[in-house]
Predict the structure.
Amino acid sequence: MMPTVELHLHLEGTFEPELIFAVAERNGITLPYGDIEELRRRYEFTGLQNFLDLYYANMAVLRHEQDFADLTRAYLARARRAGVRHAEVFFDIQAHTSRGVPAEVALGGVSEALAASEREFGISTGLIVTFLRHLPAEDALRSLEEILRLDVPLLGVGLCSSEVGPAAPFKPVYDLARAHGLRRVAHAGEEGPAANVREVLDVLGVERVDHGIRALEDDALVDRLVAERVPLTLCPLSNVRLRVLDNLAEYPLRRMLERGLVVTINSDDPAYFGGYVDENVRQLTDVLGLSLDELTTLARNGVEAAFVDDARRAELAAEVTAWREAQLAHQG
Ligand code: ADE
Ligand code: ZN
């Protein structure tokens, strides 16, 4: 199995229907769906907003620290089977605090599970809190200030949810994050235009762009991303399920690789989009006929794009090389 770095993964997007029902039941919550099959039938999306509505509704059954720990642990167990060796996971803190769950409860459960990840699953991790673009930037700033007062290990900040309205109002959030030594990413160029990618680079000072697929519509921007080696965390199955593209055959991955973009393959919200990162890679490989060299480049891009120290980066790089050599020996 290809060793993988996962850089674009919403923990709440790994909430599988079975666990949604189990957590709802133990919290005494009645879901508006009769059973798992009825819920699954709703996993047909017309676009980002239509998906987000269901995603936020389902995560509302998470109430207690244990719920957040169980969600996180279930992801890590699945990620291990997908070959994930390092994961930088997104967590939509405001989606929980806005409905009355204290930040320390939600983050307590997540960080407890992440802290045990290396030992339990052999996966190194980092936590990126993602602020919601559809809420006022002042809420995000207050939220980050609160999180910084908590004793929670934090890797970075991100921005997600509906790609509407400017990202510029979030500049104070990113400035505060930078002042505290946090890493900075943002969703842009998923449903929104290439100009949104420029905005998060120029105004928020992000170090990676989540999705960024629509950057391809702006040649000068692509040149800049290549020159500055700004990674794009692509999520192919997500893009198809949210109708950013009609099908995987149209996925411009090879064009992006040939242009020299630092692209990585990730799973976004795998419980909703039909597959974890291994499935994203497998389907792309089948449909596009990816070569061992191309797969190696994708794996190495993930290692380059990860926010890890030199020692961990060297370990991850060595695993990719060992995997490549095993594949070559097998082919030969
Ligand atoms: N939150 C969870 N998944 C998302 C996506 N694909 N785009 C924006 N916000 C999200
Ligand atoms: Zn995302």
User: Anything to note?
Assistant: The pocket of zinc ion (ligand 2) is lined by residues 8, 10, 160, 187, 210, 268 (CB under 6 Å). Residues 145 and 176 are 8 Å apart (CA to CA). Residues 4-331 form a domain with the TIM Barrel fold (CATH 3.20.20.140). The chain has 17 helices and eight strands.
